[in-house]
Amino acid sequence: MIESLTASVVLLLAVVAASMALHAGRQHTLESEDQLQAALAAEAKLSQILADDYLNMKEYNGDDEPPGAMVTTNGTSYPNEAYRIGRRVTVEDHQQKFPGLGVVIDGLQITVTAYDQDERRVCTLTRFVPKPSQ
């Protein structure tokens, strides 16, 4: 009787350990998928902004597409794989300084942040766009 009970406990512990390992593996896979989707979404938004005219870029400031609500440039919803990711944009006046050269370049700093359902930042891309010469 004791041997049977001990064997049952050992078997239960083995099943619990295997289940925990599978769950941890699944969580790691979801995290990797979120990172990939976040990078793709942030890059797509940054590309959309950079393709626009410099004078229109500030209009993107404050754009926020919450998780599950992102759309492509033509208005199509993102695929189901990206439903856990959202993105927001900040566009600010910025000066890029090169002290060794004594040069200061005016422009815009564009930041696209992709975040998850818990508002945790997953990916951030920042790009400086020089102001065009007149």
What does this structure look like?
With 134 residues, the chain is α+β, with helices and mostly antiparallel strands. The protein has one domain (2-130). The protein has 1 helix and 4 strands, in the order αββββ. It has one helix spanning 2-51, and strands spanning 64-65, 86-98, 103-115, 121-130. It has a 4-stranded antiparallel beta sheet. The protein is elongated. It starts with a helix and ends with a strand. The model has no long low-confidence stretch (mean pLDDT 84).
Q: Which tags fit this structure?
A:
134 residues; alpha+beta; four-stranded antiparallel sheet; 1 helix
Summing up helix and strand content along with how strands pair, one would put the structural category as: alpha+beta
Please tell me the total number of domains.
Answer: 1
Could you tell me the radius of gyration in angstroms? Answer: 24 Å
Shape summary: elongated
Poorly predicted sequence stretches spanning 5 or more consecutive residues: none
Record field, number of beta strands: 4
Mean pLDDT: 84
> In oligomeric terms, what are we looking at?
single chain
Discrete helix count: 1
Give the topology, please:
Layout: H1 2-51, E1 64-65, E2 86-98, E3 103-115, E4 121-130
Briefly characterize the structure.
With 134 residues, the chain is α+β, with helices and mostly antiparallel strands.
